[in-house]
Specification:
Number of strands: 0
Distance between the termini: 45 Å
Mean pLDDT: 87
Largest sheet: none
Structural class: mainly alpha
Low-confidence stretches: none
Shape: flat
Oligomer: single chain
Length: 101
Amino acid sequence: LRNWLVVEVVGVILGGFLGALSAGRLKTKVEKGPNISVRGRLAYALGGGVIMGFAATLARGCTSGQALSGGAGLGTGSWIFMLMVFGGGYAVAHLVRRQWT
């Protein structure tokens, strides 16, 4: 609690929760396609999160920050990274598309 960012993040999460609760919009729902179970969808989400966490650790920083900050500074490596992320996302989307249709 020594850093103001901790208080800000806790406040945003708590405020969002209380706002949804007071509006009667607080419910748990997993978005999924007709060809995949809730368990399978959560497994895919967990797997993707683990891979992104590993990549951030390997790169010693935030992957989206690499693309946004480095891309704004016209860094060649950042632009290559950004193109590879979008290309990889497009390829993986093609592979898992059958889960959503």
